[in-house]
Amino acid sequence: MKVGVLTALFADLSFDQVIEKMKGLGIDTVELGTGGYPGDPHCKLSMLENKSALKEFKQKLADNGITISALSCHGEPLHPNAAIAKASQETNRKTILLAEKLGIPVVVDFSGCPGDSDKAKYPNWVVSPWPPHYQELLAWQWEKKVIPYWSKRTKFAADHGVKIALEMHPGFVVYSPQTMLKLRAACGKNIGANYDPSHMFWQGIDPIAAIRVLGDSIFHVHAKDTQIYPYNLPKSGVLDMKPYTDEANRGWIFRTVGYGHDEAWWREFVSTLRMYKYDYVLSIEHEDSLMSPDEGFTKAVKFLKPIVIEQKPGVAYWA
User: Fold this and answer.
1) Domain, as residue range, for 39
2) Rounded to whole angstroms, how far apart are CA atoms 114 and 238?
């Protein structure tokens, strides 16, 4: 297992500058955004049609000893607005093709969320079992939108030697271990989780126990923490709609690893991942609104490096 970084936190820097920062902290693995919410500052999908640019990019990686853990295109492929959905779907399709060309095993995305009908303008995230029409809506979403799209896209990815890892994120139909496994049961084992424990914490899901639930469906892992504020939580509950920058009044906020949960917790998290055969990358995702990207990244690396369990010689996670 090793520590990597999702480079979206350094979107204002060139890739060369990002590499220098990584080298300074002994990091040689990156997760690169190709579009969607991470954007594409360091990995351009246009390389699919530009052989010389692709060759130059590969050479830069080789010259600097850099590997890519995943390509990420977090989007909204099931959005009821056809233009938004189409853009996300096309970014995902091209990202899979680029991952194939670069020999990258996994593409990260969101599941997305449909609306309440074919005429809807916005997604409709169903989180209540009652009144009964919510159950009817949820069934319609999964049967008519979610499973048809992801079944085809999962097969497309498999045909190109790439796995799809969905980040379980509230607001989308896949937001918990149960919904992740529901989609996997419908679409096959080539779709799994980009496991971000920060989203489990604030939903009241024990992230370590959830590893045991997800098992071999974990394809990629984000290293991000959450701090819960017991004083504010009774006022807002976990579905807190206040901006992330309103830290003093929120029930919880995202934190750099170690600032929400201590070293003992993260040691158990890493050990449990290894127990369930995840021996790949912990990709640092910085969304701590109380720290600059530099500070958050540096502290996360120094915190995680002594904790990760090195891969056993001769054992390859993707074998």
Assistant:
1) 2-226+255-304
2) 23
In angstroms, the Cα distances linking 125 to 73, 134, 262, 303 are: 21, 10, 33, 36
How many beta carbons lie within 10 A of that of residue 279, not counting itself?
A: 18
Gap between the Cα atoms of 93 and 103, Å rounded:
15
Nearest-angstrom CA–CA distance, 111 and 114: 10
Residue 242 lies in a domain: no
Alpha helix (H) ranges present in 160-221? Answer: 177-187, 197-201, 207-214
What is the pLDDT confidence band of residue 312, given thresholds at 50, 70 and 90?
low
69 has a pLDDT exceeding 60: yes
Residue 285: which pLDDT band, with cuts at 50, 70 and 90? very high
Tell me, yes or no, if the pTM score tops 0.85: yes
Q: How many domains does one find in the chain?
A: 1
Q: Which of 304, 250, 314, 298 is nearest to 273 (CA)?
A: 304
d(CA 282, CA 83): 33
| 315 inside domain | no
pLDDT bracket for residue 73 (50, 70, 90): very high
Say if 200 falls within a structural domain. yes
- CATH code, domain carrying 281: 3.20.20.150
